[in-house]
Specification:
The complex is a heterodimer.
Chain A (H helix, E strand, L loop, with lengths): L4 E3 L2 E4 L5 E6 L6 E7 L6 E7 L14 E5 L5 E5 L8 E8 L8 E3 L3 E5 L1
Parallel strand pairs in A: 2-10
Antiparallel strand pairs in A: 1-3, 3-7, 4-5, 4-8, 6-7, 8-9, 8-10
Chain B lengths: L3 E4 L2 E5 L4 E7 L6 E6 L6 E6 L5 E4 L2 E5 L5 E6 L8 E8 L6 E3 L3 E6 L1
Parallel strand pairs in B: 2-11
Antiparallel strand pairs in B: 1-3, 3-8, 4-5, 4-9, 6-7, 7-8, 9-10, 9-11
Classes of the chains: A mainly beta, B mainly beta.
């Protein structure tokens, strides 16, 4: 079956421009997560959506970052006025509670380069 | 907030040697999950442990959850080149689905 998909796979943008990253979760998965991973580093939590609940935005690094999840499915992460330190791989994951397990399924990521 | 640390950060082993990574949480966890990320890839779920003191095995991999549910370990016996990657533990707090990922241990194998 289809996994989590993300687009674009690569994005090069100039400093100061806005970017939108898209995530299509696995159908039926109620939870959706965004993470950021800098080269050779760990996973930095950004934001978490669960069903119709208010999202957990506690990981967003600044007010330049925002995310939406429309209709409980597709999510868009928007970064305004990009800075060079925003360069990283942005990973999306979705999960569904089943058999007492909240396994997260990750997408391939979007590699963002800010020049 | 909850913090999850892993040691070591890096491990280089000869092929055939054993490998262990340790995971420690600042808070009690309802469960612990382990993920593997191959170079250039994305994290892939390996296993979840729920019970205090639980031990699970997957072929050459042995996973353990501590009695206090604040620490965990992953042990690989007789490493192979296919084991290369970064291993992350992750755990939610009680009543919270959101996972906090550990800092990861990067394993490299010397053939």
């Amino acid at each position: 079956g289809a996994g989590v998909s993300q687009s674009p796979s690569n994005k090069v943008t100039e400093k100061g421009k806005d970017v939108e990253l898209r995530c299509d979760p696995i159908s039926g998965h109620t939870a959706l997560y965004w993470y950021r991973q800098s080269l050779g580093q760990g996973l930095e939590f950004l934001i978490y959506f669960q069903g119709n609940s208010a999202p957990d935005k506690s990981g967003l690094p600044s007010d330049r970052f925002s995310a939406e999840r429309t209709g409980g499915s597709v999510s868009t992460l928007t970064i305004q006025r990009t800075q060079q330190e925003d360069s990283a791989v942005y990973l999306c994951a979705s999960s569904k509670y089943r058999d007492y397990i909240y396994e997260q399924y990750f997408g391939p990521g979007t590699r963002l380069t800010v020049t | 907030g909850q913090q999850v640390m892993q040691i070591p950060q890096y491990q280089h082993v000869q092929e055939g040697e054993d490998f262990t990574t340790y995971c420690n949480s600042s808070t009690t966890l309802s469960n612990i999950q382990w993920y593997k990320q191959r170079p250039g890839g994305h994290p892939v779920f390996l296993i979840q442990l729920v019970k205090s003191g639980e031990v699970k095995k997957q072929k050459r991999l042995t996973f353990q959850f501590g009695e206090a549910k604040k620490n965990s370990s992953l042990h690989i016996t007789a490493t192979q080149t296919t084991d290369v990657g970064t291993y992350f533990c992750a755990g939610p707090g009680f009543g919270n689905e959101k996972l906090t990922f550990g800092t990861g241990t990067r394993l490299t194998i010397i053939p």
